[in-house]
Amino acid sequence: MALFKDSRPSLPTSSEAVENRYIRRPIKGFGEQLRDSLTHRDTVMMIMVGTGLLTLILPALFLLLVPSSLTYYLWASRQKYRLPFKTPINWGGTDYGAPKPGGRGRFGKAAGILYFGQDEAGLEELWIENGDARRHGFFIGTTGSGKALPLDTPVLTPNGWVLNGDIRPGDEVSHPDGGSSRVLSVHPQGAIRAVRLLFADGREAVCSEDHLWHVRATSKPGLTCPQALPEEGRVMEARDIGILFGLYGADLDMTVPLAAPFTGPA
Question: Phi and psi for 214 in degrees, rounded to 5?
């Protein structure tokens, strides 16, 4: 085992340190930052209370301050609320942080599924949607990156088969290696496109297009297997399996590993 000769931490010197303003820069323009500040509930409360106190101190400004404060309050209350990134899917409704291309005033539905934590300044939740999670996630296996199944799909558990829609956090489900795994959280995916995989033994599986499968492929004699599929196989999305089958058809034998034998209620 290797040992470190010096256990003191190696910290950057003053010349190597970087100022915070260069590490985290705001992506919003000045106008957007000003609007966010003016529509924050704390700002609205301070302005309304300050206006009331100023009116008591200087009654002569009543006709100026009251209409101005009411106009400001109506403007601030009509602003569309949005989280820093995306709105979680279980909130439902429209996500004003997801504008649709091609026109102003059009927004997508709430679709956030991956929770990052809270914003340091406003303590608002940080969520990203399925596409961002798959493209920008740090590792495969994040919520929404390949595990979406229909709600009526049977899932094997140590106590027998349970519908996917009835699975709850804390439940135990059977693992392909023969053991079991505990469900940490459940994230509804909403209505999404699905594909159907048919197997040679007559069984079939319905899953989302981005569901992940470990696939091995062998080519017929005299044919060359695609370089993208090494002998040990690779993890592929369900839609890519369909594309591969469409290109090669019966010239390519594709298989997925079988789960280990399971002993328990059927």
Answer: -90, 115
* One domain, residues 171 and 234: yes
- 185 within 8 A of 89, measured Cβ to Cβ: no
Domain assignment present for 195: yes
Does 212 lie in the same domain as 173?
yes
Q: Please give the Cα distance from 230 to 172 (Å, whole number).
A: 33
**Backbone phi and psi for residue 115, each to the nearest 5 degrees, phi listed first:** -95, 125
Domain that holds residue 46: 29-77
Question: Which tokens is 172 given?
Answer: 């135990």
Other beta carbons within 10 angstroms of residue 108's beta carbon come to 15
Q: What is the pLDDT, as a whole number, of residue 241?
A: 85
Vertex 142 angle, CA 153 and 27, to 5°: 135
Same domain for 245 and 210: yes
pLDDT of amino acid 9: 42
What is this structure's pTM?
A: 0.44
Q: Say how many domains are in the chain.
A: 3
The answer to whether residue 231 sits within a structural domain is: yes
What DSSP character marks residue 251? G
- For the chain, 266 residues long, the average pLDDT of each consecutive 10-residue run is 40 55 60 81 88 89 88 84 80 80 78 74 76 61 58 89 90 87 83 85 86 83 65 81 80 84 70
Kindly state the tokens that stand for 193.
């496109």
